[in-house]
Specification:
With about 220 residues, the chain is α/β, with parallel strands linked by helices. About 40% of the residues lie in helices and about 25% in strands. Strands 1, 2, 3, 4, 5, 6 and 7 form a seven-stranded mixed β-sheet that branches.
């Protein structure tokens, strides 16, 4: 199955979706967003990574910034913060450049490495788009964290690929149905930029059914 361009979802949405399906739906289906200090710092870091004036060409290395990528198979599109093309013996040809090159995507994040896999899934999704676009293999990439100022190498495993495909299928299903999941409160809600919109504690406290039943009970008394 291939998706039409009008049906493409944002690649970056996979990190929201994996973190919290409701957060993803509020942003990508209901078009709600709210800045906090975390999103502001992240935006500044990405602006630097996406600056076209910082494009670099060195011996044996080409660095592309804000490279548009997409996948018809997964129905997604977006931008890679940085893609490095390394001169190698077994790679792909690049228009206007001699030799063969391997592909190495690098995603920029403001914080530090996470125990959860949202960042790795986003990088894997970018790698899979690059593979489809260039008819090449992208077995590895990296996530650069602003807090540690270090790259974390990520192997694009079969498990990551399967989870990426699973997430995008579910995201398309939600988007087509315009479905926003109910609140599932957790400790992570306190750092969410949408907590004032989502109201997770309120959602946990009672459901509409519980509220109506309580009101009827009070009227009977």
């Amino acid at each position: 199955m291939e998706y039409a361009e009008d049906d493409y979802l944002m690649i970056s949405g996979i990190q929201h979706f994996k973190f919290c399906r409701r957060q993803w739906a509020l942003i990508h289906i209901e078009q709600q967003w709210e800045e906090n200090v975390h999103t502001a710092v992240g935006e500044l870091l990405h602006r630097k990574a996406h600056d076209p004036e910082l494009t670099e060409k060195r011996k044996g290395l080409i660095i592309a910034r804000a490279l548009p990528v997409s996948s018809r198979e997964m129905g997604v599109s977006g931008e890679c913060d940085v893609v490095e093309f390394h001169l190698c013996e077994d790679g792909i040809k690049l228009h206007g450049h001699r030799g063969l090159y391997s592909i190495y995507p690098v995603e920029y994040k403001k914080g530090k490495p996470k125990l959860t896999e949202e960042d790795r899934l986003q990088l894997a999704a970018q790698a899979m788009c690059l593979e489809e676009m260039f008819s090449a293999s992208v077995p590895e990439g990296a996530v650069f964290y602003g807090e540690t100022r270090r790259r974390e190498r990520v192997e694009i495993t079969q498990e990551l690929r399967q989870e990426v495909q699973k997430c995008f299928r579910e995201m398309h299903n939600y988007f087509d149905r315009k479905y926003t999941p109910r609140v599932k409160y957790s400790k992570a809600c306190s750092a969410c930029s949408l907590k004032e919109i989502c109201l997770p504690k309120l959602g946990k406290s009672f459901s509409v059914k519980t509220y109506v039943n309580q009101m009827l009970k009070e009227e009977e008394e």
